[in-house]
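Annex B. Sample input.
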Amino acid sequence: MTTSHSTTSAALADPDLTDPLFAIEHLARLFFVAVDTAREYTYRADFPKPIKVGRRCLWVPDEVLAWIRKQPRFSVDQRKKTAAQVAPSVQAATPQMRYKPRKRRGAEVAA
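Annex B, continued. Sample output.
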């Protein structure tokens, strides 16, 4: 039994950037990132507001491209410095998980 879902997901795997409206898959392809990362970009306050079509969010391509043009340009060195500055604060805010090995069965017997 073939479902239409497989056809739909195959069509969205390579979205056409000339479409009149962009779905999240279009944004991911445009930004060269995963869909989840593209979705994170859309949560920014300065990102263009979507048009809701049912449960799906769509964006006007001209608004998205204008938003991209407004973003500051950084060299590779600037991006590395920014990442190095942000990383320690993120690590400090993240609680460290401690590894606690499980007790092996029969460990008491062997000892």
